[in-house]
Design a protein that fits this description.
10 strands; 203 residues; two-stranded antiparallel sheet; five-stranded mixed β-barrel; globular; alpha+beta; single chain; Inorganic Pyrophosphatase
Length: 203
């Protein structure tokens, strides 16, 4: 009998045959979570990163794109777009947020998403892009193809979360968003992160 091993969610799952137009997403956190989970890079299991100490609630499903990595190519893109103080990528898989009208109850699952834009986030000198996407075939969001089609209030809500989710009272913020970009640049970031992955891990 052949053993049935579970694939590592970062290294063992394909980004998808139509990437970067449609990408596989491994979900780590959902809006009902009061604890921030992330994949343990060594084992592939979800682990507790930290309890959410304050009122920051993730506004949509959040995870990463498998077989991506944010290093020199992602840093280069940030610098080309004007973020001259960037020193490196954040050395993690590429973060992605998925908009959906459905109540997804837990992480640890896969879904297909269409990138529509993103935030050029700089965190302590690291390029830490946040890709914004929509769930394939979602009844409310599934037709959207660019972040410009979202209501401005929705974009502001997402932006506010990423600017505040690491904040501590009475301490200055260490991150900023230099640019809100559309679908075309989001796909460039995905491709850059795939190149960074290939350089560091092969493939």
């Amino acid at each position: 009998m052949i053993p049935n091993f579970k694939s590592h969610p970062w290294h063992g799952i394909a980004v998808g045959p139509d990437a970067p137009n449609v990408v596989t997403v491994f979900v780590e956190i959902v809006p009902s979570d009061t604890i921030k989970y992330e994949v343990d890079k060594e084992t592939g299991f979800l682990k507790v990163d930290r309890p959410q100490k304050f009122s920051n609630i993730i506004p949509a499903v959040y995870g990463f794109v498998p077989r991506t990595y944010c290093d020199e190519e992602v840093k280069k893109l940030a610098i080309e777009r004007g973020s001259t103080d960037v020193t490196e990528g954040d050395h993690d898989p590429l973060d992605i947020l998925v908009l959906s009208s459905h109540n997804i109850h837990s992480g640890g699952l896969l879904m297909d998403a269409i990138p529509i834009g993103g935030f050029k986030m700089i965190d302590k000198g690291e390029a830490d892009d946040k890709i914004i996407s929509v769930l394939v075939d979602d009844q409310v969001y599934g037709h959207i193809r660019d972040i410009s089609e979202l209501p401005k209030a929705e974009v502001s809500r997402l932006q506010h979360y990423f600017l505040t989710y690491k904040n501590l009272p009475f301490e200055p913020a260490n991150c900023r968003i230099d640019e809100i970009y559309g679908a075309d640049h989001a796909k460039e970031v995905i491709v850059a992160s795939q190149k960074d992955y290939a350089k560091n891990y092969g493939g």
